[in-house]
Amino acid sequence: MQQACAFSSVMYWDARYRGGGTSGAGSVGHLAQFKAGVINRFIADNRITSVIDLGCGDGSQLGLLRLPADYVGVDVSPTALWQCSGRFPQRRFMPCEQADTLPAAELALSLDVIFHLVEDSVFVSTMRRLFALATRFVVIYASNVDADWPVPHVRHRAFTRHVAQSEPDWRLLAHLPNRYPFDPRRPDETSFADFFIYGRPDAACTLHIPQTV
């Protein structure tokens, strides 16, 4: 009897984009507008001059962001990177395996990514890379509970516990709940993700988190 292959998040996402799929409902419509409002104000308030986006996907969310010139989008999918390069020729994109060669940016973003890190080793390495690539802030948009999900490309994790244990030089500055909390009757119009904003204790900046956007 042939043994089933283990799920690969890298293979899943590239196959999804090659097949004409998208980054998902969270990257379009009012959910994307909500994310963009928070991130754009955060960048402006804190005068962020460089950003690394770890998991840029197909670029749908990127199109709504007001980013500094020094931006690098990173993704596991070669297809997504090709799509982004064509859509945003003025921006820089690179595969995850090359991201460790980048100089750290003031802000590292992880938007709708962590709950797609199904494999434990991928989760641990991605979280390490995310914080290593930031000098001032890390902004995460994700769920924060340990739970299985009825689709193979989603696995919810209580990631703040992991960060507290593995990244002692960072502290959670703010938790901003989603304006559109998850409703199983409207899964494509709501989200189980909230914003979690981390900073270094010695970050020389004033932090403003919008309560409405």
Q: What key attributes describe this structure?
A:
213 residues, alpha/beta, Rossmann fold, seven-stranded mixed beta sheet, two-stranded antiparallel sheet, 5 helices, globular
Structure notes:
The protein is α/β, with parallel strands linked by helices. The chain has one domain: Vaccinia Virus protein VP39 (Rossmann fold), CATH 3.40.50.150. The chain is 27% helix and 22% strand. It is built from 5 helices and 9 strands. The strands form 2 sheets. Strands 3-2-1-4-5-9-8 form a 7-stranded mixed beta sheet. A two-stranded antiparallel sheet has the order 6-7. Strand 2, helix 3 and strand 3 form a beta-alpha-beta unit. The longest helix is centred in the first third of the chain and has 17 residues. It is globular. The relative contact order is 0.17. The model has no long low-confidence stretch (mean pLDDT 90).
